[in-house]
Predict the 3D structure of the following.
Amino acid sequence: MRLSKYFLPILKENPKDAEIVSHRLMARAGMIKQQSAGIYSWLPLGKRVLDKVCDIVREEQNRAGAIEILMPTVQSADLWIESGRYNDYGDEMLRIKDRQDRAMLFGPTNEEMVTDIFRSYVKSYKDLPLNLYHIQWKFRDERRPRFGVMRGREFLMKDAYSFDLDYEASKAAYNRMFVSYLRTFERCGLKSIPMRADTGPIGGSLSHEFIVLAETGESQVFCHRDFEGFAVPPADLNYDDDAAVAGIVEKWTTPFAATDEIMEKEDWARAAWDGLAEEARVSARGIEVGHIFHFGTKYSEPMNAYVQGPDGKQHFVSMGSYGIGPSRLLGAIIEASHDEAGIIWPKSVAPFDVGLINMKPGDTACDAACEKIEAALENAGLDVLYDDTDERAGAKFATADLIGLPLQVIAGPRAVAEGNVEIKVRATGERETLSIEAAINRLAEAR
Amino acid sequence: MRLSKYFLPILKENPKDAEIVSHRLMARAGMIKQQSAGIYSWLPLGKRVLDKVCDIVREEQNRAGAIEILMPTVQSADLWIESGRYNDYGDEMLRIKDRQDRAMLFGPTNEEMVTDIFRSYVKSYKDLPLNLYHIQWKFRDERRPRFGVMRGREFLMKDAYSFDLDYEASKAAYNRMFVSYLRTFERCGLKSIPMRADTGPIGGSLSHEFIVLAETGESQVFCHRDFEGFAVPPADLNYDDDAAVAGIVEKWTTPFAATDEIMEKEDWARAAWDGLAEEARVSARGIEVGHIFHFGTKYSEPMNAYVQGPDGKQHFVSMGSYGIGPSRLLGAIIEASHDEAGIIWPKSVAPFDVGLINMKPGDTACDAACEKIEAALENAGLDVLYDDTDERAGAKFATADLIGLPLQVIAGPRAVAEGNVEIKVRATGERETLSIEAAINRLAEAR
């Protein structure tokens, strides 16, 4: 992509209302634009990262056996009256009347609708286990939207819903999602720690939040140092092996871990923390990036979602739900990976793989070198953002650092005259001068 | 994908309210489920096709130089008051009050919001041309939603918006979208014919609808037989060559073409039709799949979207907008390509490439043959839906024909005992018995 033909509106100033670094950097890097309080447009650079995050989420959901669907944003109030949640949700629910004066709402979550889909089609235990997910815009009318896309009103959510015959099977479904979340966040460049959590308006008895450690995190968290050494399961994990999956969950839930919310409310948590040796304690800032719930028959009973079991009897299905906010996750990645100059994207979610900077567009040798590098890298399957604009060098460097592409290639007239370019690694700042051929090979390998 | 682990709820009966064949087939093939009037969930098979259609739309938008963004669904009424359209839109606009009692709405289209994005960042003619598009859910509160996803209330739309310094440049932008639409529909297996159209609530002076011919189409259309021989431009068309692109538009807009709406309203259209030789006349049923508009400064003037020109003066930008409904397009594909037994997907949008039917699951030889074929085809990059269920053969054949995968492989115990399977081409019904190896090779080539 040529920057001269792209739409990358870099801001020099921080937005006044941007309280946290990810919000500031996303606005300055031309990734998002606020349209109303808590409602954002995703500009081209932001959209590219959002797509990459969603692709990782989707791949890991599919790997764990979840099946993708797509439910609408606007829901009928009837379903929520049926489940008994219509009044519980309070002012956060965006209620709508359509032209026929029917009560509708902009979905804040989809337990009711997916249960309706399930009961419409599934009649037998033979069709279980079933886990349906979608990635769709949600709306929660927060009293005080803030932190950019981290706590917006309209936000993207991946929500999965599992249906099983009994508690044991639904616990296995919960475990599969638990493990897929560990993998999802690691692939986004994040180390996540699962922590027991409150269930809030979703309900149920068992719930974990996945917390990413970041100095600028929104809340204080407390955990055992053992987590630092834990390895995330590999891609070829057999998700059909319930015992193996349960073993991973066991391992990741054994050491102490709790949010400040739990520490305040639960005496056991405070006692467990106090019981830890000083050197085992990690107290840090964290950001919630995922939340999973097991709630059994909370929705299936009032909504009459049952299957015929092997015993010939009707059983209300046991359910769980599993949420990741890709827009929020993207913010968390920036909170965890940035410096004074801007964003430092992990390779897996970078909007482009390489930033190619032509220091003197119009100079025949520089143009030829850049075009050669651009073509060779794109041929090798890399996405290149080629800065062919007339900006001065300082501004180009600042933009490249701000938008945080993992690798930069700098083609200046002096180096190019000697057949060379410079490669810069964004994360470390390391620079190296290489021949054009060697630079192409190095970058193609880095893919 | 194993059908035993998939979610493909086939219906035996047509939904009562399904008036048209695409609606009936999508419901019966387990692609969609109605949630409220004109509001649908996309089930796994439907979601896969929708994604394929969106990918084609996206690729052709990018090829023509449009840049993808993503605007939110909920908009502030303020922007629409600014443009003067807030009252024009009438009851079709879904109006919403948020918890602060602010007037919001679920976007039916995005001219206002994208103009707001433009004016926030772009100041100079040097940043033009610019064309921003997104693929996002829209809501139009139709008085009488019907025809399944063809005329839903919540529907997916790809809408692109071009910004140029003057009329001539914006006409070139219009032409690029015109040509990209021809390519988009052809890649979806459809022949589209551009017809002059009314501009309706979008406004402006120049507009074309793209109509696909299908016996079950919603409206009568009239055109010259010349269109039958027109070839769609190739993928390597140079979209930067304004003259070449204009030449293609000229060619495709010269022969007579009009919808019944235009024929009724415009005397010139009736006269032109009457003037055609009998053998040149094609009168057929058609479906609108795209609509493009040039409206100049209709939004840029009231909303103060201008750039500094080369003359140093301020110029309101000249704009156009360009819409394709992927959900509607999907319905049109089915209208144009089905038979008594079900859907016949064009290869480019098929949810899976191959349906693999095991006639006797549990039979060691059949299972081994199917697993070998499944692995080999997936290795070759094909998406396989493997029917490993216990259904009886007749039901499996009916399902395979209903969901319309282009190619079927049938593995029955007698053929497999001789090392053979049968291949069936869905579109023609042709069947051929081949050795397992030969079948794998044939299918891998068909990719």
